[in-house]
Backbone:
């Protein structure tokens, strides 16, 4: 058999060899046995190796066993392709499996290509699917020198693109879960393109994203990104909304968070919707280790083909949303369709069951109206039979457009997110004349089908319904009293306000004084005279005495209705329960003076706290030179006066000529925190004069916080610098460690042990040492510089170190840059001390 222009022909057997003689030999070892033998071989190598050759022999043994495992994995991947190619030959040549295997071997030998590549080519010719097109386009682009992806992992000397793609496909189709699919895609198809990470997201009906599988990322990242709630902006979310591939040159530049952003923040990303027939089931996300250049169309089509593989797995491995059972394996049969038809027939509103209509390339172009329920009312007045079975755009051509009904249905079908609106314009053509009706619309997806429900609105009924809800929410009761016939009309809310049953007779206005508090008789009398005698609209507020003994504060508003001759024929108006407003006004009046006094006291207290804090800690301090150190300080109090904090810093030359450097933060705000800050800062100054080390100073300061104050809780750093030895000794009490900027790299000093000041009466502290080199920069700061409510301290610390690495003109400019670009949002004081060695 030969492959010529895509046609297969049988090859005669000149030697009449036994078909069984071409069976694969030697027998392949099981992968589990190979991996087990690796551990056994390591143990044996350690036992056999002598002292002088142990390392070399052990390394050679490890390399040999690992090579065997890799070869076994490759053979297992290749066997699936070979078996698929054999199946194609069996169908084309009408022969048995043994003859097909022999023909495949002979063809490979005559063509001078590996049997695996020939198998992939046979499958491509037989399938003519997206993978075949992607492989052909990629190879054509590579032949022209334009398929480079920009990554060191590109496999130019490995198997052909067709082999890699078909291997990834066979592994995906055979996988039992999406995790295996992600690993296979990365290993076989994407790693040769330079990719280092793959994530497969499953789209939820509520717009959420669930991490169905990933490879190349850490398990911690996988656990952290297991579920993305609706509305969170991520690259995968953008692909889901846009329903198209999104290419990002750099994840950091895009500003969107995603899995693996801490390990490869500057790398490129591509996110592609994974769906079939216009229905998006999830998103395929691929990560590169470096910024991604614009890719040729061949690579883009290859990525889209891989996304389609992910869609197949997402569709077959997760339960159907409607029935909870896996989708049927029979093509074109939807187990939810009959149930959806029954559901539509049970609705009292117009309902249409829509099925997706695909073109010859499998793309969604329209929806077929599969069923209309028995209560269906067409806006154009057509019967059900004229609509059922037609395409949606045929029945309603005006439904097209970017924001029309069809666009809403496509979005629901693609994403599974339901759509509802109280008012949408439905337009139908009657003899080429557009007829528009307003309707409430609901669109939901059920399996592959869509249920469209609408209720054509009657304007008068809609306004009456809105008025009824407004009266109920506003506790308003309306009335009309005919003075000619004596007929009185109340709505249901007015009976509720009066505390009467709906079957009782309404109360006329002339009997209103009998149901009001006696002290309000004059108010009601003026109201009735203005309304009935002077015949002008008026209002009044009074206390209504209900039969159940409850008194309610009511405002009544009424207007006269006059006949053509000027006679008063009727009165209409409304009652409103204003009890809540009245008691609110009473409570406000009772507390107004007390509130004013409290605000005055609070303002005075905060003013004193600010004066105390700023007297000791000025907002900024000029740089100073001390024994080979250049020291600059930036202090920024809280932005609002009522959030006065207890941050402090101190720089002092001790009698021993060592330099004391300290930063601290008192828990809490206000004048108490400011006074506690003064106590600890001055105590540390006095203790430092003893010549003790930083750890001992913090031990004593902890005793001060526990016994000489009212249990102050604080964090702090104490450091002593010796100008002669250039050694900095430091200790911490629950505080963030300093940052050392040496050259162009910023690192955080080791986290030595040390409890918060005031946490326990007896505490011990570790001491760290650091020798400062010329031009070293040491940053000591409080958490007000980096703390955010929506981000961990670890992430904020990484961002601070990144900013600190940027070269600026001098120490002052560097500190100003860090303070200006700090994005902390906790409204806390900020203290920043920069120490630069000369």
Residues:
């Amino acid at each position: 058999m030969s492959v010529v222009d895509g046609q297969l022909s049988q090859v005669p057997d000149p030697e009449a060899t036994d078909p069984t003689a071409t069976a694969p030999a030697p027998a392949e070892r099981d992968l589990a046995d190979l991996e087990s033998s690796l551990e056994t071989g390591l143990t044996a190598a350690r036992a056999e190796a002598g002292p002088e050759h142990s390392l070399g022999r052990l390394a050679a043994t490890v390399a040999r066993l690992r090579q065997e495992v890799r070869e076994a994995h490759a053979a297992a991947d290749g066997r699936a392709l070979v078996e698929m190619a054999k199946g194609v030959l069996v169908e084309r040549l009408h022969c048995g499996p043994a003859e097909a295997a022999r023909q495949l071997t002979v063809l490979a030998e005559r063509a001078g290509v590996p049997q695996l590549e020939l198998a992939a080519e046979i499958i491509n010719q037989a399938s003519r699917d997206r993978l075949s097109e992607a492989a052909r386009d990629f190879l054509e682009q590579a032949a022209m020198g334009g398929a480079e992806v920009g990554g060191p992992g590109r496999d130019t000397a490995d198997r052909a693109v067709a082999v890699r793609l078909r291997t990834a496909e066979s592994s995906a189709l055979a996988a039992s879960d999406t995790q295996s699919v992600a690993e296979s895609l990365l290993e076989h198809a994407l790693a040769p393109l330079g990719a280092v990470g793959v994530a497969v997201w499953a789209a939820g009906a509520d717009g959420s994203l669930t991490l169905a599988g990933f490879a190349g990322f850490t398990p911690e990242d996988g656990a952290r990104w297991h579920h993305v709630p609706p509305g969170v902006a991520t690259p995968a979310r953008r692909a889901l909304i846009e329903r198209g591939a999104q290419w990002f040159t750099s994840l950091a530049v895009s500003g969107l968070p995603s899995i693996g952003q801490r390990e490869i923040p500057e790398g490129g990303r591509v996110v592609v919707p994974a769906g079939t027939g216009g229905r998006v089931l999830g998103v395929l996300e691929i990560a590169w280790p470096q910024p991604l250049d614009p890719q040729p169309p061949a690579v883009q089509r290859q990525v889209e083909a891989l996304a389609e593989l992910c869609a197949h797995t997402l569709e077959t491995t997760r339960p159907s949303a409607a029935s909870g059972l896996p989708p049927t394996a029979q093509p074109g049969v939807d187990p939810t369709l009959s149930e959806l038809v029954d559901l539509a027939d049970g609705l009292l509103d117009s309902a249409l069951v829509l099925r997706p209509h695909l073109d010859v390339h499998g793309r969604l172009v329209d929806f077929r109206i599969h069923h209309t329920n028995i209560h269906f009312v067409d806006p154009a007045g057509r019967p059900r039979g004229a609509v059922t079975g037609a395409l949606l755009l045929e029945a309603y051509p005006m439904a097209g457009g970017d924001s029309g009904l069809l666009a809403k249905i496509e979005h629901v079908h693609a994403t599974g997110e339901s759509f509802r609106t109280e008012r949408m314009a439905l337009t139908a053509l009657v003899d080429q004349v557009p007829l528009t009706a307003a309707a409430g619309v609901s669109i939901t997806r059920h399996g592959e089908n869509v249920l469209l429900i609408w209720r054509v609105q009657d304007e008068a009924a809609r306004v009456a319904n809105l008025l009824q809800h407004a009266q109920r929410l506003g506790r308003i009761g309306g009335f009309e009293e005919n003075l000619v016939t004596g007929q009185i009309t109340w709505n249901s809310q007015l009976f509720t306000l009066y505390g009467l049953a709906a079957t009782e007779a309404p109360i006329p206005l002339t009997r209103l004084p009998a149901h009001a508090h006696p002290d309000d008789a004059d108010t009601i009398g003026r109201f009735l005279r203005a309304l009935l005698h002077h015949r002008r609209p008026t209002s009044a507020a009074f206390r209504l005495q209900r039969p159940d003994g409850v008194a309610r504060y009511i405002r009544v508003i009424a207007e006269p209705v006059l006949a053509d001759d000027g006679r008063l024929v009727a009165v209409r108006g409304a009652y409103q329960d204003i009890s809540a407003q009245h008691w609110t006004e009473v409570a406000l009046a009772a507390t107004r003076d007390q509130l004013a006094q409290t605000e005055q006291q609070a303002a005075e207290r905060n003013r004193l706290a600010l004066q105390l804090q700023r007297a000791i800690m000025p907002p900024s301090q000029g740089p100073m030179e001390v024994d080979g150190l250049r020291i600059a300080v930036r202090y920024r109090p809280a932005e609002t006066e009522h959030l006065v904090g207890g941050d402090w810093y101190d720089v002092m030359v001790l009698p021993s000529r060592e330099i004391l450097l300290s930063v601290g933060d008192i828990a809490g705000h206000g004048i108490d925190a400011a006074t506690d800050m003064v106590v600890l800062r001055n105590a540390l100054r006095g203790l430092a004069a003893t010549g003790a080390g930083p750890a001992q100073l913090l031990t004593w300061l902890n005793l001060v916080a526990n016994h000489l104050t009212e249990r102050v809780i604080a964090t702090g750093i104490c450091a002593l610098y010796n100008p002669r030895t250039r050694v900095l000794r430091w200790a911490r009490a629950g505080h963030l460690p300093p940052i050392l900027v040496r050259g162009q790299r910023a690192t955080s000093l080791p986290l030595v042990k040390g409890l918060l000041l005031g946490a326990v009466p007896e505490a011990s502290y570790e001491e760290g040492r650091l020798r400062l080199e010329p031009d070293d920069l040491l940053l000591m700061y409080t958490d007000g510089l980096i703390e955010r409510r929506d981000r961990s301290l670890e992430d904020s610390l990484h961002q601070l170190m990144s900013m600190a690495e940027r070269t600026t003109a001098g120490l002052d400019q560097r500190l100003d840059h860090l303070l200006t670009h700090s994005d902390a949002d906790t409204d806390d004081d900020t203290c920043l001390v920069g120490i630069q060695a000369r």
In short: The chain has 22 helices and 29 strands. The longest strand covers residues 433-446. The domain at 462-577 is CATH 3.30.450.20 (Beta-Lactamase). Confidence is low (pLDDT under 50) at residues 1-29, 134-159, 319-333.
